Amino acid sequence: MLIEETDIPDVKIYTPKRFQDERGFFFESFNQNYFKELTFVQDNHSSSAKNVVRGLHYQLVKPQGKLVRVVSGAILDVAVDIRKSSPSFGKWIAVELTADNNKQLWIPPGFAHGFMSLTDNAQVLYKTTEFWYKEHDRSIRYDDPLLNIKWPDIKSIILSDKDKTAFLLSEAELFD
């Protein structure tokens, strides 16, 4: 497994070694040995049409770490550091995750997470270190000018009602 550092030290990219021949391919998508200090408690699967933006989501209480990968299609996956005491507060990482590149993004607790589907029917799987609790769920606007995330230039973004009414970073409840 190749482990890449990012500009935010706590966020990492994991790329499993892929074995491919005329029959197809095989790779080990998860191995607990790379995450010895973590316990994953939930697996999630989402399907998105092209131009869907999900996020930026986080849980203020019982924060989730997420290991995100794509099994069909492609997304631009984004992690934003929302820990006020962090030297990288307000900074973000964006990584293209595809079914072909097999990259996985590790997003630790204390980060907001979101993604944009770059293809129709993008299938995203992610493991979490904490269960989802509706009462602790929070959102920050994907297009917050303070964050200035470089999303692909598209004309028609598709958002949920929840994401349409998300807070700006300056208004949101954040981690210390």
Keywords for this entry:
mainly beta; 6-stranded antiparallel beta sheet; 5-stranded antiparallel beta sheet; 13 strands; 2% helix
Provide a short characterization of the protein structure.
It is built from 1 helix and 13 strands. It has one helix spanning 161-164; strands spanning 2-5, 12-15, 18-21, 24-27, 42-48, 53-59, 66-72, 74-81, 92-98, 104-107, 111-117, 122-128, 137-139.
Largest sheet: 6 strands, antiparallel
Low-confidence stretches: none
Percent of residues in helices comes to: under 10%
Please give the radius of gyration in angstroms.
16 Å
Helix-strand sequence? EEEEEEEEEEEEEH
Please indicate the percent range of residues in DSSP E strands (runs of 2 or more).
Answer: 35-45%
Spatial ordering of strands, largest sheet: 1-2-10-7-12-5
- Given the structure, what is the number of helices? 1
Ends distance: 33 Å
DSSP strand count? 13
Gross geometry: globular
Mean pLDDT: 96
Structural class: mainly beta
Topology:
Blueprint: E1 2-5, E2 12-15, E3 18-21, E4 24-27, E5 42-48, E6 53-59, E7 66-72, E8 74-81, E9 92-98, E10 104-107, E11 111-117, E12 122-128, E13 137-139, H1 161-164
Antiparallel strand pairs: 1-2, 2-10, 3-4, 5-12, 6-11, 6-13, 7-10, 7-12, 8-9, 8-11
